[in-house]
Amino acid sequence: MNMTYFDSVEKSSYEDIKKNSELLLLYKFKFYELLNNCPLGVIILDLNRQIIAANKSFLKLIGEKQIENILGKRLGEALNCIHRDEMEAGCGTSIFCKECGAAKAIKNAKETSELNVFECRINSKKNDFLIAYDLKVYVSKFAIKGFDFLLVY
User: 30 near 131, Cβ under 8 Å?
Assistant: First the structure.
């Protein structure tokens, strides 16, 4: 049985992730152009906190070239947070996540539909190197065709 200390354990299927990603592609001429012109790292999450879109700045920040490599991951999983595997359900569910500003902003935006802003430090490990991401995370909820998403930048 999956356990959590902070946020829900539910995860979307890869098919749902792709469907939501394709829904955003319908608005490509507006949405992706806007995202990719933003110098800040931006991701779009479904309500299970899983990545369905990311801009070029975010991919560059995490050292990825292809969005497919992070589709369906949660923010801490994409950033290789050192706590992402503490719990079976992954990012957002460990005891450490209760103190994470990014996790708080995402959870609050999902529940309140208001803009949430928190600072956080995400400690990451990539190729045996420790990286500390000091971030100010902004999260707001929005809807397209009756489906809710989270804008994270």
Answer: no
